[in-house]
Amino acid sequence: MLVLGVESSCDETGIALYDSEMGLLSHALYSQVEVHADYGGVVPELASRDHIRKTLPLILEVLDKAGKTRKDLDAIAYTAGPGLVGALMVGAAIARALAIALNIPSIGVHHMEGHLLAPMLESSPPEFPFIALLVSGGHTQLVRVEGLGQYTLLGESLDDAAGEAFDKAAKMLGLDYPGGPRIAKLAERGSARFSFPRPMTDRPGLDFSFSGLKTFTLNTVMEHKDENGQLSEAVAADIAASFQAAVVDTLMIKCRRALRETGLKRLIIAGGVSANTELRQALEAMVLKEKSNVYYARPEFCTDNGAMIAYAGCQRLLAGQFDEGGLQVRARWPMDELSPVAE
Ligand code: ATP
Ligand code: MG
Ligand code: FE
């Protein structure tokens, strides 16, 4: 089954072609980072307009790269939520219109299920059941995964998401958006000499809180500014390293706790922050001691992309699901409302 995937939930247009027999055939991504750079955040109306401009050209590009035409498509999967409603609408309307024109089924995919399944696109993917750590710009969740669509939320952030914390801390250090990769790069030259807290690790439970780290970062920045209000690059690098170490350590401790409490031996990490090298190394070291395994996607499939949507949609289509009823997208959509897929 050849499935076209369309991702447009935020500020990235991601398109991909996934074949159930051959695997991923082609993919393309367009990031709107520059469109929103002057505004200090994603402007929903500008995001929608840019998706309108990019979606069809990228669909033609992935078909061309794979040596396919639209007549070869068996189905179309698109992100139906959660995300920016206008941005989601663009992808959903294009995907559904194209499916109707080609007389093939379409399916609306949950963006976080897409992220969660992205490690399945790699060689030797994990078997169910496993623990999933979803760490992205909008989510920090620990989920017990029994099978496709069988998700139990074990814990989540009570305030900022991990990626959001990276982005805000980066801003305080004068770094551009997205902050995660920039903090990681700056941290390479620093040492984690400031003792940042490891929020909520000293009490039971699997919830997270990252807003305190933000305040701690701001205070540390303020304390070390010189008389001209400047922060030396060396100190900025040390703050970046200390902040990153605190986030990584906190995530590692909660993942270890989730493995121990459930007795599961497999951990997957997904979402933009799962691209972080320090996080991967810390989790690799932890699972070794716990006699467990950790799985993640290649870095470009950790952040938003069309491949994960094509893959997730394909799994549900293979199980007989497809869109029925009118065009619908959802800004909010708790993942445990998803329907389980029978084996
Ligand atoms: P959501 O998926 O929750 O709707 P999103 O789609 O905006 O949010 P993603 O695209 O999955 O989030 O990830 C983007 C986030 O990942 C940003 O906050 C970014 O700073 C962070 N990020 C990306 N690469 C890294 C990295 N190497 N280290 C840390 N954080 C990173
Ligand atoms: Mg994004
Ligand atoms: Fe995302």
What would you say this structure looks like, in words?
This protein has 343 residues and is of the alpha/beta class. It has ten helices and ten strands. Strands 3-2-1-4-5 form a five-stranded mixed sheet, sandwiched between helices. Helix 5 crosses helix 6 (179-187), helix 5 (162-172) runs antiparallel to helix 8 (233-262) and helix 7 (211-223) packs antiparallel against helix 8. The longest helix is centred in the C-terminal third of the chain and has 30 residues, at 233-262. The chain is globular and about 65 Å long. Magnesium ion binds at residues 10-12, 137, 303-304. Pfam families: TsaD. Belongs to the KAE1 / TsaD family. It comes from Oleiphilus messinensis. Its main location: cytoplasm.
What is shown here, in short?
Its main location: cytoplasm. This is tRNA N6-adenosine threonylcarbamoyltransferase. With 343 residues, this protein is of the alpha/beta class.
Q: Helices and strands: which structural class?
A: alpha/beta
Portion of residues within helices: 40-55%
| CATH topology heading of the largest domain | Nucleotidyltransferase, domain 5
**Helix and strand succession?**
EEEHHEHEHEEEHHHHEHEH
Mean pLDDT: 97
Number of strands: 10
How many domains? Answer: 2
The rounded distance between the terminal residues' Cα atoms is: 18 Å
Instruction: Give the CA-based shape.
Output: globular
Strand content is 15-25%
Radius of gyration: 20 Å
Question: Spans with pLDDT under 50 lasting ≥5 residues?
Answer: none
Instruction: Look at the structure and give the CATH class of the largest domain.
Output: Alpha Beta
Attached small molecules: adenosine-5'-triphosphate, magnesium ion, fe (iii) ion
**Helix count, DSSP H or I runs of 4 or more residues:** 10
Strand count, sense and barrel status of the largest sheet are: 5 strands, mixed
The CATH architecture of the largest domain: 2-Layer Sandwich
Binding site for Fe cation: 111, 115, 304
Catalytic activity: L-threonylcarbamoyladenylate + adenosine(37) in tRNA = N(6)-L-threonylcarbamoyladenosine(37) in tRNA + AMP + H(+)
Subcellular location: Cytoplasm
Domain Gcp-like: 24-311
